[in-house]
Amino acid sequence: EANAGTGAETPQHHSYEVAEAEPPEAITLLDAGDIDIAFLFHHEDETPPELPGHTTVDLGADHLDLLVPERWNRAGQIQHLNDVAELPWIMGCVRCRSTAERLCRTAGFEPRTRHITDNPGAIQSLVSNGLGVALLPRSARRYNRVPGIDPIAMDEAGARRVTAMIPDGLADASEVGDLLGALRAVEVTAHSTLGAPNDGYSES
Fold it and tell me: Is 112:135 a contact under the CB 8 Å cutoff?
């Protein structure tokens, strides 16, 4: 969730201030004029957020992967959510936990939560140490991967949609256009990296 600040003299060099908030709080801050742009996420099975007088720009998908300790999946037997129905779970923030619980119920079981933390590094460490399994957005492991984890991509986990919500009056501002362009470039690079051989992701 970012404030677009005043830019330098060239379009490629702007100054931005960033504040972190959960999506509902970010929309409140945006509506109050406390921030200029809100970067939001929602799971693809949820209704996209809307705010009158604002334009929503889709920035792409952030897939959820099931993280399991490598030693729990040496034979590759875990391929679906219901394969971990009896295992303990590590849950994230309130919204992430709600999504994970909904997906597990759709798969036919109630997850048994052992730990709750909104720190992606801590979630990975807990999984790596064999304390449970977790659903984590792929972007959370882009630059910080903890060893000892088997990340399993599965269609039933779906993805988060990442969007930018912009006041209509700022939609054509150069600072906004350059920021969105930079974020799209990062996404393209990430997709190229994730598609490379030996990236550590198993598909099911």
Answer: no
Q: How many CB atoms lie within 10 A of CB 117?
A: 15
Contact (Cβ atoms closer than 8 angstroms) between residue 114 and residue 89: yes
Strands 202-203, 38-43: pairing kind: unpaired
On whether the CB atoms of residues 153 and 204 are closer than 8 A, the answer is yes
Residues paired with residue 2 on neighbouring β-strands, in sequence order: 18, 37
pLDDT-derived band at 20 (thresholds 50, 70, 90) equals confident
Taking the CA atoms of 37, 42, 48 and 51 in sequence, report the sign of the dihedral they define.
Answer: negative
Are residues 54 and 30 in contact, defined by beta-carbon separation less than 8 angstroms? yes
Single-letter code of the amino acid located at 183: L
CB count within 10 Å of CB 138 equals 19
3-state SS assignment for residue 112: strand
**What is the average per-residue pLDDT within 36-40?**
93
8 Å CB contact between 59 and 164 = yes
